[in-house]
Amino acid sequence: MSERHLASERVGQFFVETDSGRDRLEYTEYGTGDKWVVLLPGLLMPRRMHDHLARTLASAGAHVVTLDFLGHGRSDQPDDPFGYSVSSFARQVVALLDELGAAQAVVGGTSLGANVALEVAAIAPDRVRGLILEMPVLDNALEVAIVAFAPLLLGARVFPFAFSGIRFLSRRVPRGVVPWWLGIGLDTVDHKPGPLASYVHGLFFGRVAPPRAERRRITAPALVVGHPRDLLHPASDAAMVADELPNATLVTATSILEWRRKPERLDLVTTKFVLDSWRPARRARRTGA
Asked: Distance (Å, rounded) from C-alpha 289 to C-alpha 287?
């Protein structure tokens, strides 16, 4: 997969007030203009996981921003469980829009990022022009999520030296000499054990996504991308949320790898969705009495 770099790419930062103090968040902008798109990463992953899609959308005329939530990538990683939740991440997205002076944006994300996008639409519906929801984690993923992440919380608390060792080794690998997705994986395990345990603790005991009744009230157009044969992100969750949202379109990927290995089809669908979301609404024709 070839990578395009736009001359207008730039990194920015802003600050949010949390229970642990004043924390710094970092983001990257691609392109210019008023057709804002915010892309949000998956669990513990850095914002650069969306570099390719951001450049694709920017080359089509969108103004794209990728964000590292608190605890992700190059943003601050406080050791405080109250700083980490889907609700707090959603408020960080709204704060980003305020920082950029963006009245509205198409908000999208992968896995955790999809859940946060739904939460933004629930708490600030007037700020959301559209939603891109890739493999949301909802009701049907509960048991697998507990089995997958409870050991992460326990291990970071009981065996912090092991996680510090993994972090030490990951930092010894220059990102420029390894395949791009391997570099994303190395960034994903680059977490101090204290903040990592706080992160998982906060997500476990916070609100994971808007409940069904709230999801049914989200009227923004939505593009939902589901994957077959994915236990943590079951296709049934994608189909469920697509059925709940009144203006949703469901697209089924061939696998979780399609958007990573052969992204052309999903890039095309997503680009069309973003541009359509920013087209002015048609006025209803007047009819004679």
From this structure: 7
Sequence ranges of the domains in the chain: 10-139+207-277
Pairing assessment for the beta strands 21-30 and 10-18 based on DSSP bridges: antiparallel
Backbone Cα Rg of the chain: 19
**3-class secondary-structure state, position 172:** coil
Question: What's the whole-model pTM score?
Answer: 0.91
DSSP 111-162: THHHHHHHHHHHH-GGGEEEEEEES---GGGHHHHHHHHHHHHHHHHH-HHH
- 66-93: per-residue pLDDT in tens? 999 999 999 999 988 888 999 999 999 9
Residue type, 110: T
Cβ–Cβ < 8 Å for 128, 114: no
pLDDT tens-digit readout, 166-183: 988 999 899 888 888 889
The span from the CA of 36 to the CA of 57, in Å, is: 10
CB 71 within 8 A of CB 195: yes
What is the CATH class of 10-139+207-277? alpha beta
Name the residue with higher pLDDT: 99 or 197: 99
pLDDT given for residue 284 in this prediction: 44
- CB atoms < 10 A from the CB of 194, how many? 17
Two tokens, residue 144: 């697998």
